[in-house]
Amino acid sequence: MTGSGGRSRTAILQNIAEVFRQYGYEGASLSRFTAATGLGKGSLYNFFPEGKKQMAAEVLEHIQQWFDAEIFSPLETEEDPKVGLTAMFEGTEQYFRSGQRICLMGLLALSVDTSFAMQIRNYFLRWQESLSQALQRLGRSTSDAVDLSEEIVSGIQGALVLAHARGDAGVFKRRLESFKLRLDLPAGHYDERQ
Question: CA gyration radius for the chain?
Answer without folding.
Answer: 18
